[in-house]
Write the C-alpha coordinates for this entry.
Amino acid sequence: MSTPRLHIDLDKIFHNASTLVSRLRANGISTTGVTKAFLGAPQVARTLLRAGVASLGDSHIENIELMRRSGITAEMILIRSPMLSQIDRVVASADISLNTEFDVVAALSAAAQNANKSHGVLLMVELGDLREGIMPEDVESTVQAVCRLPNIKFMGLGTNLACRSGVSPDNRNMAELTALASRIAQSVSSNRIIVSGGNSSNLEWLFSGGEVGHINNLRIGEAILLGREALNREPIEGLFTDAISLTAEVIESKTKPSKPWGEIAQSAFTNHPTSADLGNINQTIVAIGRQDTDPEGLRPPAGIQLLDASSDHLVLNTGVKKLAVGSNVSFQPNYSALLRSMTSPHITKSFNKHDATPIARTELEVLPNAA
Ligand SMILES: *Cc1c(COP(=O)(O)O)cnc(C)c1O
Protein backbone atom coordinates (compact mmCIF):
# COMPACT_ATOMS: atom_id res chain seq x y z
CA MET A 1 0.00 0.00 0.00
CA SER A 2 1.49 3.34 -0.97
CA THR A 3 1.80 6.15 1.55
CA PRO A 4 0.78 8.78 2.38
CA ARG A 5 -2.73 7.48 1.95
CA LEU A 6 -6.15 8.91 2.70
CA HIS A 7 -8.54 6.06 3.36
CA ILE A 8 -12.30 6.47 3.19
CA ASP A 9 -14.29 3.66 4.77
CA LEU A 10 -17.43 3.53 2.65
CA ASP A 11 -19.27 1.28 5.12
CA LYS A 12 -18.84 3.86 7.87
CA ILE A 13 -19.78 6.68 5.49
CA PHE A 14 -22.91 4.71 4.56
CA HIS A 15 -23.79 4.27 8.23
CA ASN A 16 -23.25 7.96 9.03
CA ALA A 17 -25.20 9.12 5.99
CA SER A 18 -28.18 6.81 6.46
CA THR A 19 -28.34 7.62 10.19
CA LEU A 20 -28.41 11.36 9.49
CA VAL A 21 -30.85 10.99 6.57
CA SER A 22 -33.35 9.22 8.82
CA ARG A 23 -32.91 11.64 11.73
CA LEU A 24 -33.48 14.56 9.37
CA ARG A 25 -36.41 12.83 7.70
CA ALA A 26 -38.04 12.41 11.13
CA ASN A 27 -38.03 16.21 11.27
CA GLY A 28 -39.49 16.60 7.76
CA ILE A 29 -36.09 17.56 6.34
CA SER A 30 -34.46 16.13 3.21
CA THR A 31 -30.69 15.74 3.00
CA THR A 32 -28.49 17.06 0.23
CA GLY A 33 -25.21 15.13 0.46
CA VAL A 34 -22.33 17.54 -0.04
CA THR A 35 -19.51 16.01 -2.09
CA LYS A 36 -16.93 18.82 -2.27
CA ALA A 37 -14.62 17.56 0.50
CA PHE A 38 -13.97 14.37 -1.49
CA LEU A 39 -13.89 16.09 -4.89
CA GLY A 40 -17.03 14.33 -6.04
CA ALA A 41 -15.38 10.88 -5.95
CA PRO A 42 -18.12 8.78 -7.58
CA GLN A 43 -17.79 5.80 -5.21
CA VAL A 44 -18.44 8.07 -2.20
CA ALA A 45 -21.24 9.91 -4.00
CA ARG A 46 -22.93 6.58 -4.81
CA THR A 47 -22.59 5.56 -1.18
CA LEU A 48 -24.47 8.71 -0.13
CA LEU A 49 -27.20 8.00 -2.68
CA ARG A 50 -27.57 4.41 -1.45
CA ALA A 51 -27.90 5.85 2.06
CA GLY A 52 -30.90 7.88 0.91
CA VAL A 53 -29.75 11.46 0.31
CA ALA A 54 -32.28 13.30 -1.86
CA SER A 55 -29.68 15.09 -3.98
CA LEU A 56 -25.97 15.79 -4.23
CA GLY A 57 -24.42 19.22 -3.74
CA ASP A 58 -20.96 20.43 -4.72
CA SER A 59 -19.26 23.82 -4.89
CA HIS A 60 -17.19 22.93 -7.98
CA ILE A 61 -18.72 22.28 -11.38
CA GLU A 62 -15.69 20.08 -12.17
CA ASN A 63 -16.77 17.67 -9.40
CA ILE A 64 -20.36 17.64 -10.66
CA GLU A 65 -19.11 16.92 -14.18
CA LEU A 66 -16.99 14.05 -12.83
CA MET A 67 -20.01 12.51 -11.11
CA ARG A 68 -22.10 12.93 -14.26
CA ARG A 69 -19.39 11.27 -16.39
CA SER A 70 -19.39 8.34 -13.99
CA GLY A 71 -23.08 7.84 -14.80
CA ILE A 72 -24.76 9.33 -11.72
CA THR A 73 -28.14 10.74 -12.74
CA ALA A 74 -29.34 11.98 -9.32
CA GLU A 75 -30.34 15.61 -8.83
CA MET A 76 -27.21 17.75 -8.46
CA ILE A 77 -26.96 21.19 -6.96
CA LEU A 78 -24.10 23.63 -7.46
CA ILE A 79 -23.86 25.04 -3.93
CA ARG A 80 -21.63 28.01 -4.76
CA SER A 81 -22.81 30.90 -6.93
CA PRO A 82 -21.94 30.03 -10.54
CA MET A 83 -19.05 31.88 -12.16
CA LEU A 84 -20.20 33.75 -15.25
CA SER A 85 -17.29 32.11 -17.08
CA GLN A 86 -18.76 28.64 -16.34
CA ILE A 87 -22.44 29.29 -16.99
CA ASP A 88 -22.82 26.89 -19.92
CA ARG A 89 -21.20 24.07 -17.93
CA VAL A 90 -23.48 24.77 -14.95
CA VAL A 91 -26.59 24.51 -17.12
CA ALA A 92 -25.25 21.37 -18.81
CA SER A 93 -24.48 19.38 -15.65
CA ALA A 94 -26.21 20.85 -12.59
CA ASP A 95 -30.00 20.74 -12.14
CA ILE A 96 -30.08 23.54 -9.59
CA SER A 97 -27.64 26.23 -8.46
CA LEU A 98 -27.54 28.46 -5.39
CA ASN A 99 -27.63 32.10 -6.44
CA THR A 100 -27.39 35.62 -5.07
CA GLU A 101 -26.84 37.78 -8.17
CA PHE A 102 -29.63 38.61 -10.65
CA ASP A 103 -27.10 39.02 -13.48
CA VAL A 104 -25.89 35.47 -12.96
CA VAL A 105 -29.45 34.09 -13.03
CA ALA A 106 -30.09 36.09 -16.21
CA ALA A 107 -27.00 34.47 -17.77
CA LEU A 108 -28.24 31.05 -16.59
CA SER A 109 -31.54 31.83 -18.30
CA ALA A 110 -29.84 32.70 -21.58
CA ALA A 111 -27.66 29.59 -21.44
CA ALA A 112 -30.66 27.40 -20.56
CA GLN A 113 -32.58 28.78 -23.55
CA ASN A 114 -29.62 27.99 -25.82
CA ALA A 115 -29.43 24.48 -24.45
CA ASN A 116 -33.20 24.10 -24.60
CA LYS A 117 -33.25 23.15 -20.92
CA SER A 118 -34.70 24.37 -17.67
CA HIS A 119 -32.42 25.30 -14.75
CA GLY A 120 -33.49 25.45 -11.10
CA VAL A 121 -32.52 28.44 -8.97
CA LEU A 122 -32.41 28.53 -5.20
CA LEU A 123 -31.84 32.04 -3.81
CA MET A 124 -29.54 32.38 -0.80
CA VAL A 125 -30.49 34.79 1.95
CA GLU A 126 -28.00 36.68 4.16
CA LEU A 127 -28.86 36.04 7.82
CA GLY A 128 -25.79 37.44 9.54
CA ASP A 129 -22.77 35.26 8.83
CA LEU A 130 -21.80 37.70 6.05
CA ARG A 131 -20.75 35.25 3.40
CA GLU A 132 -23.09 34.77 0.41
CA GLY A 133 -26.71 35.90 0.44
CA ILE A 134 -29.28 38.47 -0.66
CA MET A 135 -30.19 40.93 2.12
CA PRO A 136 -33.61 39.88 3.50
CA GLU A 137 -35.32 43.11 2.39
CA ASP A 138 -34.27 42.45 -1.23
CA VAL A 139 -35.41 38.83 -1.43
CA GLU A 140 -38.99 39.42 -2.57
CA SER A 141 -38.09 41.73 -5.47
CA THR A 142 -35.30 39.38 -6.58
CA VAL A 143 -37.69 36.42 -6.55
CA GLN A 144 -40.16 38.38 -8.70
CA ALA A 145 -37.43 39.27 -11.21
CA VAL A 146 -36.08 35.71 -11.32
CA CYS A 147 -39.55 34.28 -11.90
CA ARG A 148 -39.90 36.38 -15.07
CA LEU A 149 -36.80 34.81 -16.66
CA PRO A 150 -37.42 32.15 -19.31
CA ASN A 151 -36.14 28.59 -18.70
CA ILE A 152 -35.48 29.35 -15.02
CA LYS A 153 -37.43 27.52 -12.36
CA PHE A 154 -37.46 29.26 -8.98
CA MET A 155 -36.98 26.44 -6.45
CA GLY A 156 -36.89 28.20 -3.12
CA LEU A 157 -34.70 29.86 -0.52
CA GLY A 158 -31.59 28.86 1.38
CA THR A 159 -29.15 30.23 3.87
CA ASN A 160 -25.67 29.38 5.05
CA LEU A 161 -24.34 30.14 8.53
CA ALA A 162 -21.21 29.41 10.58
CA CYS A 163 -18.87 29.35 7.58
CA ARG A 164 -17.31 32.82 7.72
CA SER A 165 -18.17 34.53 11.00
CA GLY A 166 -19.24 31.55 13.09
CA VAL A 167 -22.84 32.80 13.44
CA SER A 168 -24.75 29.80 14.82
CA PRO A 169 -28.09 28.61 13.49
CA ASP A 170 -30.72 29.19 16.17
CA ASN A 171 -34.49 29.59 16.56
CA ARG A 172 -34.24 33.30 15.78
CA ASN A 173 -32.45 33.16 12.41
CA MET A 174 -34.22 29.94 11.38
CA ALA A 175 -37.59 31.57 12.18
CA GLU A 176 -36.57 34.52 10.02
CA LEU A 177 -35.93 32.15 7.11
CA THR A 178 -39.27 30.42 7.72
CA ALA A 179 -41.12 33.74 7.76
CA LEU A 180 -39.45 34.86 4.53
CA ALA A 181 -40.19 31.50 2.93
CA SER A 182 -43.90 31.60 3.73
CA ARG A 183 -44.18 35.12 2.30
CA ILE A 184 -42.32 34.05 -0.85
CA ALA A 185 -44.33 30.85 -1.25
CA GLN A 186 -47.50 32.95 -1.19
CA SER A 187 -46.16 35.49 -3.67
CA VAL A 188 -45.19 32.77 -6.17
CA SER A 189 -48.41 30.83 -5.40
CA SER A 190 -46.56 27.64 -4.61
CA ASN A 191 -47.35 25.39 -1.70
CA ARG A 192 -43.96 23.73 -1.69
CA ILE A 193 -40.71 25.57 -2.17
CA ILE A 194 -37.34 24.27 -0.99
CA VAL A 195 -36.27 25.91 2.25
CA SER A 196 -32.66 24.88 2.72
CA GLY A 197 -31.69 25.90 6.24
CA GLY A 198 -27.94 25.33 6.17
CA ASN A 199 -25.13 22.82 6.62
CA SER A 200 -23.62 20.52 9.29
CA SER A 201 -23.57 23.45 11.72
CA ASN A 202 -27.40 23.28 11.85
CA LEU A 203 -27.43 19.82 13.41
CA GLU A 204 -26.84 20.88 16.99
CA TRP A 205 -29.78 23.30 16.72
CA LEU A 206 -31.95 20.64 15.09
CA PHE A 207 -31.09 17.76 17.45
CA SER A 208 -31.55 19.87 20.55
CA GLY A 209 -35.18 20.45 19.66
CA GLY A 210 -34.88 23.50 17.41
CA GLU A 211 -38.10 24.84 15.89
CA VAL A 212 -37.99 23.54 12.33
CA GLY A 213 -40.72 25.81 10.95
CA HIS A 214 -40.81 25.55 7.13
CA ILE A 215 -37.22 24.32 6.81
CA ASN A 216 -37.33 21.18 4.70
CA ASN A 217 -33.74 20.66 3.51
CA LEU A 218 -30.18 20.71 4.87
CA ARG A 219 -26.94 20.41 2.91
CA ILE A 220 -24.67 18.05 4.85
CA GLY A 221 -21.03 17.21 4.17
CA GLU A 222 -18.73 17.31 7.19
CA ALA A 223 -21.07 15.54 9.63
CA ILE A 224 -21.42 12.56 7.29
CA LEU A 225 -17.68 12.29 6.69
CA LEU A 226 -16.32 13.03 10.16
CA GLY A 227 -19.29 12.17 12.42
CA ARG A 228 -19.08 15.49 14.26
CA GLU A 229 -21.29 18.55 14.38
CA ALA A 230 -19.61 21.63 12.98
CA LEU A 231 -19.98 24.22 15.77
CA ASN A 232 -17.91 22.62 18.55
CA ARG A 233 -16.76 19.53 16.65
CA GLU A 234 -18.34 17.24 19.25
CA PRO A 235 -19.02 13.64 18.13
CA ILE A 236 -22.62 13.07 17.01
CA GLU A 237 -24.17 10.19 18.92
CA GLY A 238 -24.33 6.98 16.92
CA LEU A 239 -21.95 8.10 14.15
CA PHE A 240 -18.43 6.93 13.34
CA THR A 241 -15.78 9.63 13.84
CA ASP A 242 -13.09 7.48 12.23
CA ALA A 243 -14.52 6.87 8.76
CA ILE A 244 -11.56 8.73 7.27
CA SER A 245 -7.93 8.23 8.15
CA LEU A 246 -4.65 9.65 6.89
CA THR A 247 -1.69 7.29 7.03
CA ALA A 248 1.94 8.36 6.65
CA GLU A 249 5.23 6.50 6.80
CA VAL A 250 8.04 6.78 9.35
CA ILE A 251 11.29 7.95 7.72
CA GLU A 252 13.37 8.69 10.83
CA SER A 253 13.15 7.33 14.36
CA LYS A 254 15.71 8.44 16.94
CA THR A 255 16.23 9.34 20.55
CA LYS A 256 16.96 13.07 20.55
CA PRO A 257 16.97 15.97 22.97
CA SER A 258 13.62 17.74 23.08
CA LYS A 259 15.29 21.16 23.18
CA PRO A 260 17.05 22.60 20.12
CA TRP A 261 20.50 24.15 20.53
CA GLY A 262 22.16 27.13 18.83
CA GLU A 263 20.91 30.68 18.17
CA ILE A 264 17.13 30.58 17.68
CA ALA A 265 15.65 32.72 14.87
CA GLN A 266 12.58 32.18 12.66
CA SER A 267 11.91 28.71 11.33
CA ALA A 268 10.14 28.09 8.03
CA PHE A 269 6.64 28.40 9.50
CA THR A 270 6.86 29.99 12.94
CA ASN A 271 8.42 33.21 14.12
CA HIS A 272 9.66 31.98 17.46
CA PRO A 273 9.77 28.23 17.71
CA THR A 274 9.81 27.10 21.29
CA SER A 275 10.33 23.68 22.76
CA ALA A 276 10.05 22.68 26.37
CA ASP A 277 13.02 20.76 27.71
CA LEU A 278 11.74 17.27 28.43
CA GLY A 279 15.16 15.68 28.21
CA ASN A 280 15.61 12.99 25.61
CA ILE A 281 12.51 11.80 23.74
CA ASN A 282 11.65 9.26 21.07
CA GLN A 283 11.43 11.60 18.11
CA THR A 284 9.89 10.27 14.92
CA ILE A 285 9.52 11.90 11.52
CA VAL A 286 6.73 10.83 9.20
CA ALA A 287 6.75 11.76 5.52
CA ILE A 288 3.92 14.27 5.28
CA GLY A 289 3.77 18.00 5.89
CA ARG A 290 2.07 21.32 5.35
CA GLN A 291 2.11 21.01 1.59
CA ASP A 292 -0.10 17.94 1.77
CA THR A 293 -2.32 18.52 4.75
CA ASP A 294 -3.09 20.77 7.72
CA PRO A 295 -0.91 19.36 10.52
CA GLU A 296 -2.89 21.26 13.19
CA GLY A 297 -5.93 19.29 12.05
CA LEU A 298 -4.45 15.83 12.59
CA ARG A 299 -5.39 13.77 15.64
CA PRO A 300 -2.52 11.33 16.36
CA PRO A 301 -3.00 7.87 17.89
CA ALA A 302 -3.08 7.64 21.70
CA GLY A 303 0.34 8.04 23.28
CA ILE A 304 1.77 9.99 20.35
CA GLN A 305 2.17 13.75 20.40
CA LEU A 306 2.45 15.96 17.34
CA LEU A 307 5.36 18.36 17.91
CA ASP A 308 5.90 20.37 14.73
CA ALA A 309 5.51 20.30 10.98
CA SER A 310 7.36 21.77 8.04
CA SER A 311 6.56 21.52 4.32
CA ASP A 312 7.06 17.78 4.13
CA HIS A 313 8.09 16.53 7.58
CA LEU A 314 5.84 15.87 10.54
CA VAL A 315 7.74 15.56 13.84
CA LEU A 316 6.23 13.36 16.56
CA ASN A 317 7.04 12.49 20.15
CA THR A 318 6.14 8.82 20.35
CA GLY A 319 6.47 8.64 24.13
CA VAL A 320 7.58 5.24 25.43
CA LYS A 321 7.19 3.63 22.00
CA LYS A 322 9.91 3.62 19.38
CA LEU A 323 8.49 3.30 15.87
CA ALA A 324 10.46 1.45 13.20
CA VAL A 325 11.47 3.20 10.00
CA GLY A 326 9.02 2.06 7.33
CA SER A 327 6.13 1.58 9.75
CA ASN A 328 2.91 3.57 9.37
CA VAL A 329 1.14 6.07 11.61
CA SER A 330 -2.57 6.82 11.06
CA PHE A 331 -4.20 10.10 11.97
CA GLN A 332 -7.79 11.29 12.04
CA PRO A 333 -8.05 14.43 9.92
CA ASN A 334 -10.36 17.30 10.80
CA TYR A 335 -12.22 19.10 8.01
CA SER A 336 -9.32 21.39 7.14
CA ALA A 337 -6.80 18.53 7.06
CA LEU A 338 -9.24 16.44 5.02
CA LEU A 339 -9.73 19.18 2.41
CA ARG A 340 -6.02 19.68 1.97
CA SER A 341 -5.14 15.96 1.88
CA MET A 342 -7.87 15.30 -0.65
CA THR A 343 -6.45 17.86 -3.07
CA SER A 344 -2.81 16.82 -2.66
CA PRO A 345 -1.55 14.90 -5.69
CA HIS A 346 1.03 13.22 -3.43
CA ILE A 347 -1.61 11.47 -1.34
CA THR A 348 -3.15 8.26 -2.60
CA LYS A 349 -6.89 7.98 -2.01
CA SER A 350 -8.26 4.57 -1.17
CA PHE A 351 -11.75 3.27 -0.50
CA ASN A 352 -12.92 -0.06 0.83
CA LYS A 353 -14.35 -2.18 -1.87
CA HIS A 354 -17.90 -2.95 -0.85
CA ASP A 355 -19.18 -0.54 -3.46
CA ALA A 356 -19.99 -2.25 -6.73
CA THR A 357 -18.00 0.30 -8.70
CA PRO A 358 -14.32 -0.41 -9.25
CA ILE A 359 -11.89 1.93 -7.54
CA ALA A 360 -11.20 4.78 -9.90
CA ARG A 361 -8.04 6.35 -8.57
CA THR A 362 -7.28 7.88 -11.93
CA GLU A 363 -10.52 9.81 -11.81
CA LEU A 364 -9.23 11.54 -8.71
CA GLU A 365 -5.71 12.01 -9.86
CA VAL A 366 -6.58 13.67 -13.14
CA LEU A 367 -8.83 16.51 -12.14
CA PRO A 368 -11.16 17.28 -15.02
CA ASN A 369 -10.40 20.96 -15.45
CA ALA A 370 -10.46 20.77 -19.20
CA ALA A 371 -13.66 18.76 -19.44
C1 LIG B 1 -19.70 23.44 2.08
C2 LIG B 1 -21.10 23.85 2.07
C3 LIG B 1 -22.08 23.06 2.68
C4 LIG B 1 -21.75 21.80 3.47
O1 LIG B 1 -21.14 22.17 4.67
P1 LIG B 1 -20.73 21.06 5.75
O2 LIG B 1 -20.27 21.85 6.91
O3 LIG B 1 -19.66 20.24 5.13
O4 LIG B 1 -21.94 20.27 6.04
C5 LIG B 1 -23.39 23.45 2.59
N1 LIG B 1 -23.74 24.59 1.93
C6 LIG B 1 -22.83 25.38 1.33
C7 LIG B 1 -23.28 26.61 0.63
C8 LIG B 1 -21.48 25.04 1.40
O5 LIG B 1 -20.59 25.85 0.81
In short: The first strand starts at residue 5 and ends at 8. The pocket of pyridoxal-5'-phosphate is lined by residues 34, 36, 59, 79-80, 160, 199-200, 219-223, 230 (CB under 6 Å). The domain at 10-226 is CATH 3.20.20.10 (TIM Barrel).
